């Protein structure tokens, strides 16, 4: 570690790896009845359609539910931002529609507007928010109040449980349902040790790319939501570096052209790979091989290094070392990861409810 490398601020609002295990365990127990009731209502519906709606990290977590439902259930599921839902104005919005609206503060204006659209159409509203006191929670049919700063990992665990319980209640795939539900139960014990042991690796990786100004985040399968979150709600938002999420299978279809093959010309950018153990691993390995052949700078976070998690839970495993990596990137630049130029300072203000 260089002499001017500051130690990461593990008390930062952004840093959640250390609080995630306890938060997942607490929410899994406290909200079990609510999750079962939601799943039962979806299973009872003759034509259920699920919408997972939010912005930033909240939106990113919702991709986990869609991945599981697409893979193991016949229930249609979409992940949308609030403005996407509003602009599309779905035609078949009725009592068979279930909107999972997520916002930590519960004050995201477009998400609140989605709630009003849903209620006026007779649709079901599930609020995923910090507390039952947030504006989003008011008037919702069910509230999943997760009471934690872990705004990605805990909602992700909650929608995993929703997906698992829906699959089980509908009798679609008992084995997958058990794998999902039991897997969430194991997460606290799996995450706790790597929440501390990931620090040295992350520090070393940050030292390798401390001078880059662009980080492309590549991930597929269950890791795409984490790639989306890491690029837009972390590298851009918390580090103030350029970034974009890239689905692993899309690397060849355009993004590959940013690599010139000249190491000096390519030095300002790095490719961060989130490598799963599911079917998406094939295209991740192809992207890594190309970057290696062209001497492009890259960071590799591989779920194979965390075998206890299993392929469906790769994003929980990879979240921890990547969050530590961000903390060390910030420490190298003496940058406060909680500092914002605009968010909460212009437009709708954050966190002003009692």
Write the layout of secondary structure elements.
Layout: H1 20-30, H2 32-44, E1 49-54, H3 56-72, E2 77-80, H4 82-88, E3 97-102, H5 109-120, E4 124-129, E5 142-145, H6 153-169, H7 174-197, H8 199-208, E6 214-219, H9 224-236, E7 242-247, E8 269-275, H10 281-293, E9 298-302, H11 314-332
Parallel strand pairs: 1-2, 1-3, 3-4, 4-5, 6-7, 6-8, 8-9
Structure overview:
The strands form two sheets. Strands 2-1-3-4-5 form a five-stranded parallel β-sheet, sandwiched between helices. It folds into two domains: 173 residues, 3-Layer(aba) Sandwich (Rossmann fold), CATH 3.40.50.10490; 135 residues, Rossmann fold (3-Layer(aba) Sandwich), CATH 3.40.50. Helix content is 44%, strand content 14%. The protein has eleven helices and nine strands. α2 crosses α6, α6 packs antiparallel against α7 and α8 packs across α11. The chain is an alpha/beta fold and 354 residues long.
């Amino acid at each position: 570690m260089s002499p001017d490398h500051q130690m990461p601020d593990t008390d930062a609002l952004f840093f959640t790896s250390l609080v995630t295990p306890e938060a997942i365990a607490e929410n899994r127990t406290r909200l079990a009845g609510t999750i079962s009731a939601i799943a039962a209502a979806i299973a009872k519906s003759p034509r259920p359609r699920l919408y997972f709606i939010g912005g930033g990290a909240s939106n990113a977590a919702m991709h986990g539910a869609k991945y599981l439902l697409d893979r193991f259930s016949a229930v249609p599921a979409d992940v949308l931002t609030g403005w996407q839902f509003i602009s599309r104005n779905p035609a078949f919005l009725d009592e068979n529609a279930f909107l999972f609206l997520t916002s930590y503060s519960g004050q995201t204006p477009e998400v609140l507007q989605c709630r009003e659209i849903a209620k006026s159409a007779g649709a079901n509203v599930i609020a995923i928010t910090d507390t039952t006191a947030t504006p989003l929670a008011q008037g919702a049919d069910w509230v999943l109040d997760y009471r934690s700063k872990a705004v990605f990992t805990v909602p992700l665990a909650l929608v995993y449980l929703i997906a698992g319980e829906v699959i089980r209640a509908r009798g679609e795939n008992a084995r997958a349902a058990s794998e999902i539900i039991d897997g969430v139960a194991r997460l606290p014990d799996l995450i706790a040790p790597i929440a501390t042991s990931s620090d040295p690796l992350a520090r070393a990786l940050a030292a390798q790319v401390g001078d880059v100004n662009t980080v492309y985040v590549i991930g597929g399968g269950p890791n795409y939501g984490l790639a989306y979150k890491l690029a837009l709600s972390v590298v851009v938002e918390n580090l103030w570096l350029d970034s974009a999420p890239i689905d692993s299978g899309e690397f060849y279809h355009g993004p590959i052209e940013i690599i010139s093959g000249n190491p000096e010309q390519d030095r300002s950018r790095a490719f961060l790979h989130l490598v799963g153990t599911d079917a998406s691993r094939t295209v991740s390995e192809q992207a890594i091989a190309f970057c290696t052949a062209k001497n492009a700078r890259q960071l590799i976070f591989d779920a194979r290094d965390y075998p206890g998690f299993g392929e469906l839970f790769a994003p929980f495993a990879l979240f921890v070392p990547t969050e530590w990596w961000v903390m060390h990137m910030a420490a190298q630049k003496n940058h406060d990861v909680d500092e914002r130029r605009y968010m909460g300072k212009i437009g709708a203000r954050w966190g002003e409810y009692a």
